[in-house]
């Protein structure tokens, strides 16, 4: 059994005490989330984007400090979100902690599972995966038949029927179409919408992760949800089956 903790949209600022929506200080709420994850004996901490709110070196250092403070000893890997700085991420973290270390032809492999880490960051708030990368993903999925697969990205490929769809994955429907062709792809996980949702398309479950700070209300107009900061746990079995659960922490 492989146990993964997914966190997303931490939105850390250079100033650790700075708060924003809902008077939540992202540093403090992430501290509570990591403290909750620490005793759970995970094999991987997966961060699906927007670790930083301002792309600052200090914000990424805060994350590293919290990982040490709460004794997160598992490996962790970071995907970029629209608020992250690709340059600063590469300056602040070891290669093995970044998506770049795991290209499509050599995905992150844990037992008989492969995790494909997709960079959907663009110049704006929405996401996109270049056409050649979509084609490359389809090719490698057809070649790696001996593994079960999990796909991860920052942006949501399936509409969440809210104001956040204006900032969604521009060619996400094409990604979904590709994944429909491979029964070995069991799930796709992502963040961006600051809410926990689940949609099943054929054999694949599309799972959104709550933010470790403020939560968006999935409604036509901008708004906050009253739900607390959270994270997702995924348990991947050798049989290709998996279960998942979302956990929330109290804040403040």
Characterization of the model:
The protein is an alpha/beta fold and 252 residues long. It has one domain: Purple Acid Phosphatase, chain A, domain 2, CATH 3.60.21. Helices cover 21% and strands 23% of the residues. The protein contains 5 helices and 11 strands; from the N terminus they run βαβαβαββαβαβββββ. The strands form 2 sheets. It has a 6-stranded mixed beta sheet, with no helix packed on it. The chain has a 5-stranded mixed beta sheet with strand order 3-2-1-10-11, with no helix packed on it.
Strand residues, percent: 15-25%
> What does the main sheet amount to?
6 strands, mixed
What's the helix-strand series? EHEHEHEEHEHEEEEE
Strand order of the largest sheet: 4-5-6-7-9-8
Task: Please state the CA-atom Rg, rounded to the nearest Å.
Answer: 17 Å
Number of individual domains: 1
CATH A-level architecture: 4-Layer Sandwich
* Tally of helical runs: 5
Average residue pLDDT: 97
What percent of the residues sit in helical stretches (DSSP H or I)?
10-25%
Low-pLDDT runs of 5+ residues are: none
User: Might you state the CATH topology name?
Assistant: Purple Acid Phosphatase, chain A, domain 2
Give the CATH level 1 class: Alpha Beta
Broad shape: globular
SS elements, strand count: 11
Distance between the termini: 33 Å
CATH H-level superfamily title = Metallo-dependent phosphatases
Structural class given helices, strands, pairing?
Answer: alpha/beta
């Amino acid at each position: 059994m492989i146990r993964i903790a997914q966190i997303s949209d931490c939105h850390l600022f250079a100033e650790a005490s700075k708060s924003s929506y809902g008077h939540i200080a992202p540093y403090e709420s992430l501290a509570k989330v990591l403290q909750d994850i620490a005793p759970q004996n995970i094999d991987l901490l997966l961060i699906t984007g927007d670790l930083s709110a301002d792309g600052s070196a200090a914000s990424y250092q805060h994350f590293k400090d919290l990982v040490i403070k709460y004794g997160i000893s598992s490996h962790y890997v970071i995907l970029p979100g629209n608020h992250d700085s690709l340059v600063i991420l590469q300056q602040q973290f070891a290669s093995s902690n970044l998506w770049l270390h795991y290209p499509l032809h050599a995905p992150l492999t844990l037992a008989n599972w492969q995790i494909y880490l997709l960079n959907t960051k663009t110049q704006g708030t929405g996401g996109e995966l270049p056409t050649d990368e979509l084609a490359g993903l389809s090719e490698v999925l057809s070649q790696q038949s001996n593994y079960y697969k999990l796909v991860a990205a920052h942006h949501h490929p399936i509409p969440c029927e809210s104001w956040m769809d204006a900032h969604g994955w521009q060619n996400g429907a094409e990604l979904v179409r590709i994944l429909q062709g491979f029964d070995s792809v069991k799930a796709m996980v992502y963040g961006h919408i600051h809410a926990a949702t689940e949609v099943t398309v054929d054999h694949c479950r599309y799972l959104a992760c709550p933010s470790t700070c403020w939560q968006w209300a999935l409604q036509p107009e901008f708004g906050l949800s009253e739900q607390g900061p959270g994270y997702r746990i995924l348990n991947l079995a050798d049989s290709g089956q998996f279960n998942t659960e979302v956990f929330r922490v109290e804040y403040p």
